[in-house]
Specification:
The protein is of the alpha+beta class. It is built from 10 helices and 10 strands. It is globular.
């Protein structure tokens, strides 16, 4: 991986831009490395990561976002940047890790109308979240493309070796918990695309700007048997835990925590409950724990100022079943959730 510097960015410089590649790096991206001395101001071919304290291990994760797939092409540049960063920080939270920094790969369409204005907003969004989460840019690459805008962030952090959260630790008798509220982002996307009428700013904000549950993950250390973040949809992601742990997950559909806006929409159109269960982009923590940890989990949620809700149990068997308010299995959810590759 080259630093966001002298190689890949050259192809981004078009005739409409008064800045050459070196000036663009210095203006937009080098300032994002000021708290990462090992990045050398993006002037070298690589970066030096800080030393890992005794007893801790590095955790690395990568997520790619593509315009009109993971965000809307006309979304504000600063919010696009912050979402790209936050979905990776959410992965670190799902492993119980503390974030340290990230690298960035960026491909801008050759026909971008105003590259510099977009990059200015994009860099401002990164700077804002770097300050919020105490991280810095360590490098990356930047190129042009004939296709849509895409962004790939690789985030890294550290975790106590004895405190890593995995998907594979759930056991029969455990309870299933989730942080925050579910379904807001999926409904927010439907508002943005016109599938839901009216103004629902809270739902749109949840789609455009997820909140990584780093504080909650910190408080849950030692309490969790399995964990992941809900990105592809609650049912599908619960299925990842079930498969990795070789168990069956029983979800209580009536117990799902919904926001006030989501509740009003679901109450007015029952079909939207499927979107809540399968829509994705929540970036909440879905985790399992022994029943005797319930009080400690609730206290952890209060310390992290994050609601936590018990929404199911772990049984012998395989797969995921969702029960309705009468305790009957809900149908039509067998293949629910976002799939990155369709057959």
């Amino acid at each position: 991986m080259v630093n966001l510097a002298r190689d890949g960015v050259r192809a981004m410089t078009g005739s409409h831009s008064p800045l050459d590649e070196f000036a663009r790096i210095d203006r937009f991206f080098a300032p994002l490395t000021q708290n990462a001395p090992g990045a050398f101001g993006l002037g070298d071919d690589g970066a030096l990561l800080p030393a890992v304290p005794d007893g801790r291990r590095w955790v690395v994760t990568t997520d790619a976002l593509v315009a009109d797939v993971h965000f809307l092409a006309d979304d504000p540049a600063d919010l696009v940047a912050r979402k790209a960063l936050r979905v990776n920080l959410s992965d670190l939270a799902a492993m119980g890790a503390e974030p340290v920094g990230y690298t960035l790969a960026l491909a801008l369409p050759r026909d971008f109308a105003d590259t510099e204005t977009w990059l200015s907003g994009f860099a401002a969004g990164l700077a804002r979240d770097q300050a919020s989460f105490g991280i810095a840019l360590y490098g990356g690459d930047s190129v042009s493309t004939r296709g849509p805008l895409w962004i790939s962030v690789t985030a890294f952090g550290t975790v106590l070796e004895s405190g890593v959260f995995r998907r594979s630790g759930a056991t029969v008798g455990d309870e299933l918990w989730v942080s925050g509220t579910i379904g807001d982002a999926a409904l927010g996307l439907k508002v943005l695309t016109g599938d839901i009428a009216g103004e629902h700013p809270g739902l749109i904000d949840r789609y455009r700007l997820p909140w990584p549950r780093l504080a909650l993950a910190r408080e849950l250390s030692g309490l969790v048997s399995a964990c992941l973040d809900v990105s592809d949809g609650l049912v599908q992601d619960a299925g990842h835990i079930a498969r990795r742990s070789a168990v069956r997950i029983v979800l209580d559909g009536a117990a799902l925590p919904l926001s006030t806006e989501a509740t009003a929409l679901v109450d007015s159109a029952a079909a939207l409950r499927h979107s809540v269960l399968a829509g994705g982009d929540d970036y909440e923590l879905l985790f399992t724990a022994r029943p005797d940890a319930a009080d400690a989990i609730r206290k952890a949620g209060r310390r992290a100022d994050t609601p936590v809700t018990r929404i199911g149990r772990i049984d012998p068997g395989e797969g995921v079943v969702v029960l309705d308010a009468e305790g009957r299995p809900m149908e039509g959810l067998e293949h629910a959730g976002w799939r990155h590759f369709e057959a």
